[in-house]
Amino acid sequence: MSEERTEVSSLGEFGLIDYLTRNIEIQQAGTVLGVGDDAAVIDHFGKQTVISTDMLLEGIHFDLMYTPLRHLGYKSVVVNLSDIYAMNATPTHITMNIGFSNRFSVEALSEFYEGVYAACERYGVDLVGGDTSSSQKGLVISVTAIGEVAPDQFVKRSTAQKGDLLCVSGDLGAAFLGLTLLEREKKVYREHPQLQPDLENQAYIIGRLLKPEARKDIIAYLEEQDVRPTAMMDVSDGLSSEALHICRQSNLGCVIYEEKIPIDDQSRQQALKFGLDPTACALSGGEDYELLFTIRQEDHDKLVLSEQISVIGYMTDISEGAHIVTKGGNKFKLVAQGWNAFEQ
Amino acid sequence: MSEERTEVSSLGEFGLIDYLTRNIEIQQAGTVLGVGDDAAVIDHFGKQTVISTDMLLEGIHFDLMYTPLRHLGYKSVVVNLSDIYAMNATPTHITMNIGFSNRFSVEALSEFYEGVYAACERYGVDLVGGDTSSSQKGLVISVTAIGEVAPDQFVKRSTAQKGDLLCVSGDLGAAFLGLTLLEREKKVYREHPQLQPDLENQAYIIGRLLKPEARKDIIAYLEEQDVRPTAMMDVSDGLSSEALHICRQSNLGCVIYEEKIPIDDQSRQQALKFGLDPTACALSGGEDYELLFTIRQEDHDKLVLSEQISVIGYMTDISEGAHIVTKGGNKFKLVAQGWNAFEQ
């Protein structure tokens, strides 16, 4: 956070919006009208509009003690774009509502918006609206992402077929391990404020938590390879939970092979340091923002060259249930133990 | 609030969404995919998409001590639809994010959603997505409204012309007086809990605060009369503030005649009881959700029969500034004293 501190009240609400949106550059040809009126106007030129929305609340979804505001702004956008990509669509616009207490200065909000704009630029989306408001306590963020897709080319969760291969992008479990690490360091810091945090060699897992990316590249690759997933969603609550969503919504079962689940070496090492099972971190960790999707078996060879896509199992008849086959050859029922916001 | 109390944790997050969205009936032909996937899909059939979003925070925007949850759900939707109408567009879809602490039961959330669905039904919009989340404290609501408009038929704030007539729908100031009344009764109740609240004959002003409507009827009437406003916005922060927005964004001045400002008799009487100037309530009160718009002078006769539209002044050159002419014939500079969220 920079050292200057400008009180928000010195700008007023409209002054603040003007200030925070002063550098917006419109990137989308379809943006007919952006920030500054009652609503934004978008021309999708005959495509279908795809909408997703998410709320991030301080103390529930993030901890400002170890989350830089710039990263938080970036992540707030990215987690919403991830949902649009998960529909096989292209995000084009976002709106951003934030509520904040008077402990936030204009400089702090500017840092947050720097992250927002960095994400907009990287993913080619326009910020076209939103609301700033005071809150009694804590930072409240709500983002809506709008995208487009050629008519009926979107991919749902409910359309996987028996025999389809279950695939996942990137690797899993790292964000959860990053969170576990930062929570541990926070606890140490509280007990021994003089100690320096021990974050050596942890850049990958911390980065996965604090600054995730949406898998735009995977959607582009699938299109290049002319592979249309039969079902798709993003992994925000852990592999188990998401695989069970696809099963339930497609009315199928599945088999996942433990040895096929992609886990980065740093994640694996960190899990072992914590005395955690790396596979359990991947299954239940969450916040990976990878894509979980199913493809027809005949498309397998088209994806075999990508190091970013792992085939981890296949879809079965619903009567066979959803299972994981361990490295030792045992078969266990898949259970969703993902992060449940209501059990905290 | 009903007497049963079901803990949210007994349903789980996905169970809760399923439960709260179980009665959704799709009303819009353009709704290709609604709740239950990563995102919703909308087909606008070649029209432009209009997007608006707003956040409502407990303790800042509403007080649950005197706001029934059903009304709050209704109002959360309506205030967003109002922005879409203010673009001369038709709302078609909404998404709704809510965050709530564990003091809210499933029954309480159901009441809130009853109001949401009542508004959706009344205005013919589909709820197509959203997120429920726990919050550390207080109820947090964020709504995004999506609408459609025939290409380039939307109406901005910045396109009023010199000489245009300034018009407003309905009447102004009532919601502010309803708020003042309820805040007074809350104070009385806290000091003397045995006293019954004195809300006799106050249904109108309280209703205007707790259950506002968006002026869909005015947009329909203008279209019937073949009048396209030259500029338009909705009145959420008080007439002064909004008139100054139109002036600033259209690069014009204006004159408003005090005697022409529509104020309901109940509002007038209540203002006088409180020792307030009724005109000041209309100018600075806010939350009326009426439409403020400008029309060409030649369109005047087409609107003269509507009792729901008042011509309150006209647009001038910017060099003449923005003024109000009082009943006594004095001229004062118009100043925005609207509710400022950052000065509370």
Write a structural description:
Two copies of one chain form a homodimer. Chain A has two domains: 8-149, PurM-like, N-terminal domain (60s Ribosomal Protein L30, Chain: A, 2-Layer Sandwich), CATH 3.30.1330.10; 165-333, PurM-like C-terminal domain (Phosphoribosyl-aminoimidazole Synthetase, Chain A, domain 2, Alpha-Beta Complex). The first copy, chain A, has helices at residues 12-20, 69-85, 106-123, 174-191, 203-210, 216-224, 239-250, 265-273, 278-284, 300-303; strands at 31-33, 40-43, 48-57, 90-100, 126-134, 140-149, 165-169, 231-235, 252-257, 290-295, 309-317, 322-325, 331-333. In chain A, helix 2 (69-85) runs parallel beside helix 3 and helix 4 (174-191) crosses helix 5 (203-210). Chain A has ten helices and 13 strands. Chain A is an alpha+beta fold and 344 residues long. Residues 338-344 of chain A have low confidence and may be disordered. Helices cover 32% and strands 25% of the residues of chain A. A seven-stranded mixed sheet of chain A has the order 8-10-7-11-9-12-13, sandwiched between helices. Chain A has a four-stranded mixed sheet with strand order 3-6-4-5. In chain A, strands 1-2 form a two-stranded antiparallel ribbon. At the A-B interface, helix 1, strand 2, strand 3, strand 4 and strand 5 of A face helix 1, strand 2, strand 3, strand 4 and strand 5 of B. Strand 2 of chain A pairs antiparallel with strand 3 of chain B.
